[in-house]
Write a structure and sequence with these properties.
Blueprint (H helix, E strand, L loop, with lengths): L2 H5 L22 H10 L14 H16 L9 H11 L4 H6 L2
């Protein structure tokens, strides 16, 4: 990827991409990511702690989103690609399957 993209890169989990169209005007800044993760009632220090198996559920959901969008885990993508892929490849009916983990 381009060097400029790497400098501005931030890590998002696959399931964060499901929220891209639900948040208007602010975009994903490092502060936004920190705020949304801290706002999750199940967020632990490094994993989801809603229940004993919840982190596994979130990891499966992350994998399903990445697969649905045709992305590669760990790869850097411009925001425009993530937004367009999410809009084109995730339909409301897909959420039941994806979110089931």
């Amino acid at each position: 990827m381009m060097e400029g993209l790497r400098r501005m890169a931030m890590v998002l989990r696959g399931h964060h991409l499901l929220c891209v169209h639900g948040f208007k005007g602010m975009g994903y800044s490092p502060e936004f990511v920190e705020k949304i993760c801290k706002s999750c009632p199940n967020n632990g220090i490094s994993k989801c702690e809603a229940s004993e198996n919840s982190n596994d559920h979130v990891l499966r959901m992350d994998r399903k989103v990445i697969e649905q969008l045709g992305l590669k885990d760990g790869e850097a993508y411009p925001k425009s690609v993530l937004v367009s892929h999410t809009a084109a490849k995730v339909r409301p009916d897909d959420l039941d399957v994806i979110c089931a983990g």
